[in-house]
Specification:
The protein is of the alpha/beta class. It is about 35% helix and about 15% strand. Helix 1 packs antiparallel against helix 6, helix 1 crosses helix 7 and helix 4 packs across helix 5. The radius of gyration is 20 Å and the shape is globular. Helix 5 links the parallel strand 7 and strand 8.
Length: about 400
Amino acid sequence: MENREITLAISNLKRFNQLAMNSRLVLLLLAAGGLVDFATSNSLDLVGKHNYPVEQHKLATSDGYILTIFRIPYSPRNGEARAHKAAVFLQHGITGSSDDWLLNGPSSGLPFLLADAGFDVWLGNSRGNSYGRAHNGLDPKKAAFWEFSWHEIGAYDLPAQIDYVLGVTHQPALHFVGHSQGGTAYLVMLAEHPEYNDKILTTNLLAPLAFCSHMRSQLMTMVLKVEEYMVEGEYSPGSLTQHKSSDAFCAAPLWKHVCQDILFTLIAGKSPHIKKLTAKLQKTATSGFSNRLLKHYAQVFKTGRFAKYDYGSATNLRVYGTRRPPLYALSNVAPLTVNMFYSDSDQLLSVEDAETLAQRISAIQHHVEVEDWNHLDFLYAPNVVQVIYRDLIQSIRDHYPRLI
């Protein structure tokens, strides 16, 4: 590599690190201004405070990662739990956790709405987040713990969780809902383990990331420029709780919208549908994931191939038997019913990429035509029930009414 290219790469890496530091600063300022509340509560608290029953379960993946998942067995609005209820499993998106589904509370949080509708609701987690930072032999403080991307989440974490849920509920199959990376992992699971098609009743994907060639995320664009220089290990902008700033900068009317715009742009593009984050956000929403996970998305973005992780030609030859990483066998993705929701303005999933995926997996397309509907709106928009969740829940009911 020429000196000029090396200099440019170093410059890009510095810009990427500065972007991460800026995101931390903005979040700190938002917290100081009262726009974001970094809660110490977890999924247990987020469910329990609304008087819904909640259970915590621990399980191990076949490669030794310890995951904590949560269950809402029934709703206080429709009586006690009963046998043979259909189970619905929800998997969160990139950098998130089970908490993400719960932040809006019973009025528009999907797990609460599903419980109200008569389902046995389970909230999954993935290795590396605040509910997946343990292993039978690896230390999360060491780089070896973080040698995974969303491939391992799909190949190991999802199968382990689905098997656990089916074992507890004594059901042969369940309904699946995944947002963003949750959809990515789901596709990997079925591509690698097609026998899991028989364990899925309906599939409901909210802005699933697979083909990424038309992604418009500023953060991912920056990752693309520096991904080959990112070392293995945990990516974290820093521990927000270590800072004691009480600056009310973002509380000032002049700067409030500027702070919000920067925050949403860094995460997944801003949205006018979320005027401010009134929900409580966990630290895990902004830190604690693998560098390799971002690098894997950057590879898909760059090549247009929904393929396994690219270690470089020499290692690829040893791991895969080919110099290029193999494509995921989407022909193996064949559950009975796939509902896929996407929008025009999503900064992470373009219409072109969404329709490419929908055609490959024969999905029923639900094109959200609400203006400026972005990636986080699938979870947090105040009108998400009317735009998406009502149809999603009805679709599950329509296909399998005998189970609920």
